[in-house]
C-alpha cells in the first residue's frame, strides 16, 4: 500500500500550490517511505508516497501511459493484473512491473468500468487529461483508506487523500469515501459499482453449506495474496482466523518453493519469504497473555519462524496518543485493538518485512463476535453480518490498515476476498447461528477439521476449536482494564456528566470514550473531521452491554460441546 493526495480543479496557481501539496502529501509518508512523486496537469495535481511491494525497481508513481495523457496514483495491490494484461488489445506498452499499471491501460479501453474488473485492494485517483476528467475509486469493502474533502472557499475543487490528516487543514467538509464506489468529475456523482448478490440484508440466503468450496475458496484467496517481491510474513494471534491464514500460507508457500515459483503464474509471483527460508510469523501480548501461548503452539505445529514480542502496560498507554493520530478515530474498540497491532508492526518493519497476511473479516462474515449469540433469529443474524461487513471500513479494516501503515507495513486480508465473500455470505444463516454443539464460526472450523479435509490437519484441535477472543482481550485481559483505569484518572465525573454539552454529536458514554474523544480533538480540532468517524457498538437492542469487549459478553468462557461431527 501507499499514500495518495490529489486535488482536482484547484482555483488558483497550481504551480504555486505544488509546494503546499507536497507538504500535505508528506503527512502520509509513513505509508510510503520508499519514494515520493508528484505530477501536475492543468489545474490538477496528484502526489504519491510509495511503499514498494511489487515491481520494486520500476513502479514509482504517479504512473502515466505512453503519451502522458492519463495519470494514475494508486494505493493497493491488484492480484489479477497478469490476467488483465492478457485481456488488453495488442500493442500496449507497459513502462513498469507494477501490478497497478494495468489500470491505466484498461481504463483507456473501457473507461471507468475498469473497477468492475479489478481483483484486489485499492484506492486510486486517475486523471484523463484529454477529457479533463478525474475519477476516484475505492475497493469493494474498504480495505484501503480514502477520504474526500471540499472547501467552502472553492466549492468546485475536490480533494482526495489516503488519510484525514492531509485534508483537515484544507477542507471544511470531509467524508470517508464509501467503499465499492467510484467518483466521476464529469457528472460530479459518486456511484456504487460493487453489487454482490448478498448486499441486500433483507434477502435471506438459502444455500446449503459446502465445506469443500468454503475451504478451497479461502485457500485460493490466501494463494493470490502471496504476490510479493519483498519479504513477508503472517500476523499470528493464536486465534482461529489468523491461525488458519498462517496454516494455509505455510502450505501454499511450500508449494511455491517446490514448483520454483512458476505454477499458476497469473496468481503467484516471486515470493521472498515462505517456502525457501520458511514462513515468518509474528505475535504480541502482555507477558503470559492467552494469545502468546496459543500463537506459540500454532507456530510449533506449522513450523514457522516465529517471533514473539511482549509489551508492558505503560508502553501501551504511552502509545495511545500517537495511535489516535494514526487511526483518525475515537472508537473505543478500534483503539483498544490497534495498540498492540501498532507496536507489533514497528517490530516487524524493523526486521525488514514489508507485508503481512492478517485475519480480519471472518467475524463479520460468519458472525464470530460473541454478541451474535444474542441474535433473536437466523434472519437477524444474517442482517447483522451484512451490516458489519458493510461497516468494516470504519473498524477492523481501518485498524488493520492504519496500525500497520503507520510504520510502512502492508496488511493483506484473505477473508475479504470477493470470491470468498460471495461463498460465505450466501450460505443459509441457519448454518451459522449458535446452537447446542455449535460454537461461533462452526462452519469455518468444520471446513478445516480432519472430518472434512480427508485427514489433512491444518491446525491442532485446541486452536481450531478455541473460543473467540477479540484481539484487545487476547493480548492480555489487563490491557483493557488498564485503559479504563487511565481514563478514570484523566476524566472526572463532572466532565463525563457534561459530555453532551461539549460534544452534542456522538456523545461519549464512558470515561474511556471521553478520554479518546478528547485526544482525537487535540489532533483534529476541525468539526469536519468528526463526519468520517463511526463508533463500533454491539446491538443494545439484543441486550448486549455498552462495552464492546468480547469479555463483557455473557457467553464468554461458557462451556461448549465442540464435537466436530455434530
Automatic annotation (TrEMBL):
<dbReference type="InterPro" id="IPR050795">
    <property type="entry name" value="Asn_Synthetase"/>
</dbReference>
<dbReference type="InterPro" id="IPR017932">
    <property type="entry name" value="GATase_2_dom"/>
</dbReference>
<keyword id="KW-0061">Asparagine biosynthesis</keyword>
<feature type="binding site">
    <location>
        <position position="235"/>
    </location>
    <ligand>
        <name>ATP</name>
    </ligand>
</feature>
<dbReference type="Pfam" id="PF13537">
    <property type="entry name" value="GATase_7"/>
</dbReference>
<keyword id="KW-0547">Nucleotide-binding</keyword>
<dbReference type="GO" id="GO:0004066">
    <property type="term" value="F:asparagine synthase (glutamine-hydrolyzing) activity"/>
</dbReference>
<dbReference type="GO" id="GO:0006529">
    <property type="term" value="P:asparagine biosynthetic process"/>
</dbReference>
<dbReference type="InterPro" id="IPR033738">
    <property type="entry name" value="AsnB_N"/>
</dbReference>
<dbReference type="Pfam" id="PF00733">
    <property type="entry name" value="Asn_synthase"/>
</dbReference>
<dbReference type="InterPro" id="IPR001962">
    <property type="entry name" value="Asn_synthase"/>
</dbReference>
<protein>
    <recommendedName>
        <fullName>asparagine synthase (glutamine-hydrolyzing)</fullName>
        <ecNumber>6.3.5.4</ecNumber>
    </recommendedName>
</protein>
<dbReference type="InterPro" id="IPR029055">
    <property type="entry name" value="Ntn_hydrolases_N"/>
</dbReference>
<comment type="pathway">
    <text>Amino-acid biosynthesis; L-asparagine biosynthesis; L-asparagine from L-aspartate (L-Gln route): step 1/1.</text>
</comment>
<feature type="active site" description="For GATase activity">
    <location>
        <position position="2"/>
    </location>
</feature>
<keyword id="KW-0028">Amino-acid biosynthesis</keyword>
<feature type="binding site">
    <location>
        <position position="284"/>
    </location>
    <ligand>
        <name>ATP</name>
    </ligand>
</feature>
<keyword id="KW-0067">ATP-binding</keyword>
<feature type="region of interest" description="Disordered">
    <location>
        <begin position="547"/>
        <end position="566"/>
    </location>
</feature>
<dbReference type="InterPro" id="IPR014729">
    <property type="entry name" value="Rossmann-like_a/b/a_fold"/>
</dbReference>
<feature type="site" description="Important for beta-aspartyl-AMP intermediate formation">
    <location>
        <position position="360"/>
    </location>
</feature>
<keyword id="KW-0315">Glutamine amidotransferase</keyword>
<dbReference type="GO" id="GO:0005524">
    <property type="term" value="F:ATP binding"/>
</dbReference>
<keyword id="KW-0436">Ligase</keyword>
<feature type="binding site">
    <location>
        <begin position="358"/>
        <end position="359"/>
    </location>
    <ligand>
        <name>ATP</name>
    </ligand>
</feature>
<feature type="compositionally biased region" description="Polar residues">
    <location>
        <begin position="555"/>
        <end position="566"/>
    </location>
</feature>
<dbReference type="GO" id="GO:0005829">
    <property type="term" value="C:cytosol"/>
</dbReference>
<dbReference type="InterPro" id="IPR006426">
    <property type="entry name" value="Asn_synth_AEB"/>
</dbReference>
<feature type="domain" description="Glutamine amidotransferase type-2">
    <location>
        <begin position="2"/>
        <end position="188"/>
    </location>
</feature>
<feature type="binding site">
    <location>
        <position position="99"/>
    </location>
    <ligand>
        <name>L-glutamine</name>
    </ligand>
</feature>
Amino acid at each position: 500500500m501507499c499514500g495518495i493526495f490529489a486535488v482536482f480543479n484547484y482555483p488558483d496557481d497550481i504551480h504555486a500550490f505544488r509546494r503546499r501539496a507536497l507538504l500535505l502529501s508528506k503527512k502520509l509518508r509513513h505509508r510510503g517511505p520508499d519514494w515520493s512523486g508528484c505530477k501536475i496537469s492543468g489545474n490538477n495535481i496528484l502526489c504519491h508516497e510509495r511503499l514498494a511491494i511489487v515491481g520494486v525497481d520500476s513502479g514509482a508513481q504517479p504512473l502515466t501511459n505512453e503519451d502522458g495523457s492519463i495519470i494514475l496514483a494508486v494505493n493497493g495491490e491488484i492480484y489479477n493484473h497478469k490476467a488483465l494484461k492478457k485481456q488488453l488489445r495488442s500493442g500496449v506498452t507497459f513502462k513498469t512491473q507494477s501490478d497497478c499499471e494495468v489500470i491505466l491501460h484498461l481504463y483507456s479501453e473501457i473507461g471507468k468500468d475498469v473497477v468492475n474488473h479489478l481483483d484486489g485492494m485499492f484506492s486510486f485517483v486517475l486523471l484523463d487529461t484529454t477529457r479533463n476528467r478525474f475519477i476516484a475509486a475505492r475497493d469493494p469493502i474498504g480495505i484501503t483508506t480514502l477520504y474526500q474533502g471540499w472547501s467552502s472557499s472553492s466549492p468546485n475543487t475536490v480533494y482526495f487523500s489516503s488519510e484525514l490528516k492531509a485534508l483537515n487543514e484544507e477542507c471544511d467538509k470531509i467524508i470517508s469515501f464509501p467503499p465499492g464506489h467510484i467518483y466521476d468529475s464529469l457528472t460530479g456523482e459518486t456511484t456504487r459499482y460493487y453489487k454482490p448478490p448478498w448486499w441486500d440484508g433483507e434477502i435471506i440466503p438459502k444455500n446449503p453449506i459446502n465445506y469443500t468450496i468454503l475451504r478451497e475458496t479461502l485457500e485460493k484467496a490466501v494463494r493470490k495474496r502471496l504476490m510479493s517481491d519483498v519479504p513477508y510474513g503472517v500476523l499470528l494471534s493464536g486465534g482461529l482466523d489468523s491461525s488458519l491464514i498462517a496454516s494455509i500460507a505455510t502450505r501454499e508457500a511450500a508449494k511455491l518453493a517446490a514448483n520454483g515459483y512458476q505454477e499458476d503464474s497469473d496468481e503467484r509471483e516471486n515470493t521472498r519469504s515462505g517456502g525457501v527460508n520458511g514462513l515468518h510469523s509474528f505475535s504480541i501480548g502482555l507477558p503470559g497473555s492467552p494469545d502468546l501461548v496459543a500463537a506459540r503452539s500454532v507456530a510449533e505445529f506449522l513450523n514457522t519462524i516465529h517471533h514473539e514480542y511482549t509489551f508492558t502496560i505503560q508502553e501501551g498507554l504511552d502509545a495511545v496518543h500517537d495511535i489516535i493520530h494514526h487511526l483518525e478515530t475515537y472508537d473505543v474498540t478500534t483503539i483498544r485493538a490497534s495498540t498492540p497491532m501498532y507496536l507489533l508492526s514497528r517490530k516487524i518493519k524493523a526486521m525488514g518485512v514489508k507485508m503481512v497476511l492478517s485475519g480480519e473479516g471472518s467475524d463479520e462474515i460468519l458472525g464470530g463476535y460473541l454478541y451474535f449469540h444474542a441474535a433473536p433469529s437466523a434472519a437477524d443474524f444474517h442482517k447483522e453480518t451484512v451490516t458489519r461487513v458493510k461497516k468494516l471500513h470504519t473498524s477492523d479494516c481501518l485498524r488493520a490498515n492504519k496500525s500497520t501503515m503507520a510504520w510502512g507495513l502492508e496488511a493483506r486480508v484473505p477473508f475479504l476476498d470477493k470470491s470468498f465473500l460471495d461463498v460465505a455470505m450466501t450460505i443459509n444463516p441457519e448454518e451459522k447461528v449458535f446452537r447446542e454443539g455449535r460454537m461461533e464460526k462452526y462452519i469455518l472450523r468444520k471446513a478445516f477439521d480432519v472430518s472434512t479435509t480427508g485427514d489433512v490437519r491444518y491446525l491442532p484441535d485446541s486452536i481450531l476449536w478455541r473460543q473467540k477472543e477479540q484481539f484487545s482481550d487476547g493480548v492480555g485481559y489487563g490491557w483493557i482494564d488498564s485503559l479504563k483505569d487511565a481514563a478514570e484518572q484523566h476524566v472526572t465525573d463532572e466532565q463525563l456528566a457534561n459530555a453532551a454539552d461539549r460534544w452534542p454529536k456522538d456523545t461519549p458514554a464512558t470515561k474511556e470514550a471521553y478520554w479518546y474523544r478528547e485526544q482525537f480533538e487535540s489532533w483534529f480540532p476541525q468539526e469536519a473531521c468528526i463526519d468520517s468517524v463511526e463508533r463500533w457498538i454491539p446491538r443494545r437492542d439484543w441486550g448486549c452491554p455498552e462495552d464492546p469487549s468480547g469479555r463483557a459478553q455473557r457467553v464468554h468462557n461458557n462451556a461448549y460441546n465442540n464435537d466436530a461431527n455434530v
